[in-house]
Structures are given as C-alpha cells and as structure tokens.
Amino acid sequence: MALVCASLLALDPAGLRSASAEPLPADRAGLDAYIRDYLMNNPEVVRDALLKLEQDEQIANTKRALIEHKDALYASGSPEIGNPDAKVTIVEFSDYNCPYCRATYPDLKSFLKDNPDTKVVLKNVASFGKDSEAVAHIVIAAAKQGNFEALHDALMTQKGQVTEERALDVAKGLGFDIDRIKKDAAATETAETLAATQNLANQLSVNVTPLYIVGHQGVAGAPDDLLAQLSAHAESVRKNGCEVC
Predict the structure, then answer these.
(1) Residue partners of 39: CB distance under 8 A and separation at least 6
(2) 91, 66 contact by CB (below 8 A)
(3) Average pLDDT of the chain?
(4) C-alpha 81: how far from chain center
C-alpha cells in the first residue's frame, strides 16, 4: 500500500485532492485514512499505478540487458544493409527460411529507402533447421567478399526452401568466389560466429523471428503496422538519443 501511495503521489500530487473539494488532512493518521478511503472507492487507480510500475520495471530490465550485450549487438561485425553512417540502427534477428522475415522484408526495404539515415544490423539465428544453418554459414562466408546487400536481397526474395545448394547458386550468379565461400563456410571461425549469434539470441530471450530492436524498443513478428512502429521508434532515437546503442 505504501508503494502504491508513493507511486500515486509521485505521478500526480494533486490527484487525490482533485477527487474532493475538501483539503487533505494535515496529520499522518488522517491522511492515511483519507488515502485508504480514496483507494477503496477508486480501485482502478491502484490497478493503473501497478501497471505503470510494472511497465517501468520492464523497460528498466530491457535497457539493462541491452546495455550488457551492447557490443555483441552493435560492434561484432555483423553484416549490415542501409547507410553505414546511420544515425539510427535497427538490429534484426532473422532466418532466411522464416516466412515472416520474408513477408516483412519489402516493408523493411521501403523503410530504409524512406529513412536514409538508418541501417539494419542482421543477426541470422538459423532457427529453421539444417538448411537454415547451412545457408547461415554461406552468408557469413560470403559477407567477407563484399556486395552483401545484393546477396541478402536475393536470398530474402527467394520462393520456397532456401538450401545450401540454392544459396551457392544465388551467390555464383552475383559473382561471388564460390570456392572461397565453401572454404570459409567450413571454417571453425564461421561456426563460432553463428554460435555467438544464437547465444546472444538466447540471452536476450529472442524466441520469434523476425525481431527488430530499435533503441530499447522491440517489434516482434510481422504486425500490420510494422512501418509505423519502426518509424515511431526511429524518431524517438533521433530526438532522445539511444541509451543502449
């Protein structure tokens, strides 16, 4: 009760007074009785205060987790699309065989085009089985050769299951050195890179793809208002900066 009362008074010191024309009691016992009576007659105030407290705690916990993993999210050398010198960075956890990742990709491209001060850091978690894991190895290897955005675009716009063979065919058509890709894809370093991304996803409790992180806000799945949410979160970063980036 004390916590709820403190929250109420902190949020709106005049809130209790506005419920009545009478002045608040001056003594502690009278004030306690007044507050108790007010809350019993207005239980929704307790609900709203507790919800606000829970939301604030969730935001604080999210910020702590993102700050703890800041380097892994933003400074780990993951492939990127968009403006390299962007003011706003979006982190996307995805999989090339995730249907929702493919479904939202046109919106993401549109967002990057309309917001040239943004970029997307791509975290491929390869959560859709062995084919996805093999494709992830190829993509990690191919990214070392440059021209990554073209490869990413081609793979995200494929129809049907993307396999190792199909990914290699796509890369070959884009002029990548396939022998080098195969060698780099089989390297221990590549396996460690993918494992680090998957471990990061586990530590951040990423259990759905796609998941977009913008500042300390997240957008999961393929909501109809994806562009509106990304735009709102990006604008918040522009105005207020990013505590966790």
Answers:
(1) 1, 4, 5, 45, 46
(2) no
(3) 86
(4) 16
